[in-house]
Amino acid sequence: MIPNNEDFANLITPFVSAMIALVISLWIRDTAGRIAKGMAFKFNGQFKEGDEVVLDGERALIVKIGMTQTVFGIYRSTQNGKSINHYWRYVPNERIPYLHLEKIVSDKEDIEGSE
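The structure assignment produced for this chain is given below.
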């Protein structure tokens, strides 16, 4: 007996529906996780937009802390030390715990200038 198209559609529909539901649930879980990590970083209080930091050994400025990514402005001088290049680094918030991130509390120049 050869199954007709209607029988085949009735047989495969639950499997296709289950696969679509699985894909959507995994996507929602990942997105919700990224947003939760972004909110945790934003409302942590240790870092805020406008803070000067050292990001993986380079001086940087936190430009924007978003829901899924954080934007850092990196300062890099040339070898002769005259010109300063400024570029953006976009970091997904789930990668922030794995970065070497230090907050600059005060520059040495500010400490020497206040004496």
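Interim note for the steering committee: The mean pLDDT is 83. Residues 108 and 114 are 10 Å apart (CA to CA).
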